[in-house]
Amino acid sequence: MPPPLGAAAPAPAATAPSFIHLALSTRRRVPAPRAVAAASMPASHSSHEHDALLLHRATDVADRSAGLTSPHPNFGCVIARPQRETDSADSLVVGEGFLYAQGTPCAELLAAQEAGEHARGATAYLNLEPGDCYGDSTAVRSLVQAGITRVVVGLRHPLKHLRGKAIQALRSEGIQVDVVGEDLQNILFEEALKSCLTVNAPLLYRAAFHVPFSVLKYAMTADGKIAASSGHASWISGKASRGRVFELRGRSDAIIVGGNTVRFDDPRLTARHIKGHVPVRIVMSQSLNLPEEANLWNVNDAYTIVATQRGARRDFQKKLARKGVEVVEFDMLNPRDVMSYCYDRGYLSVLWECGGTLAASAISASVIHKVYVFMAPKIIGGLNAPTPVGELGMSQMTQAIDLIDHSYEKIDRDMLLSGYIQPIPDLSPVIPSMDEIPSVDPEVSPYETNIISFYKTWDTFGAFSNFSPHPIHMPDENGDSFMWPTVEHYYQAHKFIGMDNPEARTIVQEIKLAKSPEEAARIGRTRQKEFPELVRADWETTKIDVMYRAIKHKFSTYPGLTNMLLSTAGSVLVEASPHDLFWGGGREGEGLNYLGRLLMQLRSEILGTFPASVEVGEAA
């Protein structure tokens, strides 16, 4: 685990540091910024090219966690300094860092730790303004304490409660902050800005449209067919193209298909090429005319949700529930409402792998933002063979949807066409005054019911989440003090602590070593379902106490969190998970909201409004 912020930095190497290459590889790397002879161009032009190259490198670094963890805002930080103080164009990267997952150390802290003393007097390049929601401004403090003198920011944060805060904080510390499009306006920055927009397209679409970033993917023959007239579709594209599809799945929170895909193809919809993030699988079916047995009903490898019309086949809903499949009912099942549900669930990116009818419905509902088309050099014909997109109501070619910023890529024998249906929203023109940056979410009205919801770590009160990056020193299975990376690690491990069984102890070690709270949660939940006999017998009666001990220690360790909690006095706190009906509030308020209740109990204890011995049920 990296040393705590403020600890002595590692001694600099005797020789000048070389370009850093992190152990975690990426599928796409930007070459190290090339040296530019100062005499070959004006100094200002040389400096701008230098900044643009390093900013582009920061976006590449930010993309390194894709497919390893649940999609989240992508933060990358590159720290560079002159190799010779007299030549600002000849730079050297001394530190890099990226946000591996929500709840893990921020990019700025990792880059500063890697740079050590070499960060003093250097410039930090950030693809996105830091998004501290944790009450302790870790990202800003990391740069300040490292001795950074200048910061180049590609984009202001798109979320209103975060936009401009970190920039203002850095400037108040005397650090020069240059924002692309504001302080840096040059044609050289156009490609760098484009890369900053692309790497965080899911967050930008979510912020602008209040739906997840949705990608429609399909494979078709050269004559535009996605299956034969019989419905047979395996395989249109080649193995290399299918590998790219696995990559797209790994970058998504969820994969959506319709009932026909389940009936005819019986897919698994897993990202089989990776060991990291496993997207949720969503089936949309109005009638629930689905097979009794299907690969998607096996939830050991991936979670499945079935979205349907209210009241459809109640008996089949119960059968699915017994298999561990979650059924969500809608008054009217349509792509727009399903995407609103996915937005509430915290999803950033959704991949549609559906047939032509559902694809046309999603496009007509304006919820598809980008398409990936894998074209195979095959012709199958057939008047009744299905096509990738059904009826859109267009009768003239002039009505056709033009793809924006499209590109082509050859993948073995196939051709990949990708392009946007809706352009990436650039929210940068909305620039807040330094004196008008809100301290709370500007969309919350003081006249509405005083309910504060939290869920993802980038929410206004994201620090209340068990996934927030606040390590806690608490006893482990041996009674020894251990630095648990997050509350979620501690909670999941305690399902198995106390069991006199070597397999249970192995699971505890797996959870302790999990790189992110998402991974810790996945291990804990999966092992609990696979090996219920290894879960402590008293878990259902003790899990509330385990959680409360952990969050109480978390808030007592970090004063900033306590101040944030006390600032909510008088408000009802709700963990806004739409699917966890024990710890969360549920989709329609039907959840027990025990995490919110525990936080309100802790808040009351701190304020001294009732004795610590009062039961949480009474407190609520």
Account of the protein in words:
The strands form four sheets. The protein has a nine-stranded mixed sheet with strand order 10-9-8-7-11-6-12-14-13, sandwiched between helices. It has three domains: 38-199, Cytidine Deaminase, domain 2 (3-Layer(aba) Sandwich), CATH 3.40.140.10; 203-420, Dihydrofolate Reductase, subunit A; 451-619, Tetracycline Repressor, domain 2. Helix 3 (138-146) links the parallel strand 3 and strand 4. It has 620 residues and is of the alpha/beta class. Helix content is 30%, strand content 17%. It has helices spanning 43-62, 107-115, 138-146, 165-172, 190-199, 201-209, 239-250, 259-265, 314-322, 335-344, 356-364, 487-493, 502-512, 517-530, 539-557, 559-566, 594-607, 616-619, and strands at residues 76-84, 87-98, 123-128, 150-155, 176-179, 213-220, 254-258, 280-284, 304-309, 326-330, 349-352, 370-375, 404-411, 414-420, 451-454, 472-475, 481-484, 572-575. The model is unreliable at 1-43, 429-449 and 612-620 (pLDDT under 50). Helix 13 (502-512) runs antiparallel to helix 14 (517-530).
CATH topology of the largest domain: Dihydrofolate Reductase, subunit A
CATH class of the largest domain: Alpha Beta
Q: Largest beta sheet: what is the strand line-up?
A: 10-9-8-7-11-6-12-14-13
Spans where pLDDT lies below 50 across 5 or more residues: 1-43, 429-449, 612-620
How big a fraction of the residues is strand? 15-25%
CATH architecture of the largest domain: 3-Layer(aba) Sandwich
Structural class: alpha/beta
Subcellular location: Plastid, Chloroplast
GO cellular component, one term: chloroplast
EC number: 1.1.1.193
Main location: plastid
